[in-house]
Amino acid sequence: MDITLLVNLTSRAWSLKILALLDSGTPGRQAPLIAAARASRTSFASSLDHLVQLGLLEKNPGHGHPLRPEFRLTHTGKTAAAIASRILETLPDDDAFAIIRRSWAVPILAVTESPTRFSVIKSGLGTITDRALSQSLCVLEDRAWLKREIDVSQRSPFPTYHAVNAGRKINQAIGLSI
């Protein structure tokens, strides 16, 4: 999975959860998915539509049995669903999932495998604003998923960030090669 797809995927709160549920065998119908995700119908429907637009899910064509899945994973969706499952398996609790639902948390962890400067993270993520990046870095640092170190070996010291603890596990679950 490339970073652009990861950024687009995580821009909706329930996208990772939907993909992980489909990967685990939850039927591809709205009612069982909503019940398993414990999401509101509006945000859930928005995430489903977003996944269809990204080409990760498709509506099941044709008519058939009432238990026939409404949605199924595409070829690309199966790969993304496996990654989503690995990410959610690394989370220690529901509070951690609330952080993952933030739109920039997963992409930031994906690009901080090694110590990385603020400007490099920003350029790697493309459309992120300075404020959104700064706030996300603070949240991840407070949770101890990201470590901030000051490099004083240069004339002007600068901070670097890298994934640690659960953040490192999420980084490894994504497996980006950037």
UniProtKB/TrEMBL annotation:
What region holds the HTH hxlR-type domain?
100-174
Query: Which GO terms label this protein's molecular function in UniProt?
Result: DNA binding
* UniProt keyword list: DNA-binding, Transcription, Transcription regulation
Enumerate the InterPro entries for this protein. Answer: HTH_HxlR, WH-like_DNA-bd_sf, WH_DNA-bd_sf
Q: Which domain of life is it from?
A: Bacteria
Protein known as = Transcriptional regulator
Which source organism? Denitrobaculum tricleocarpae
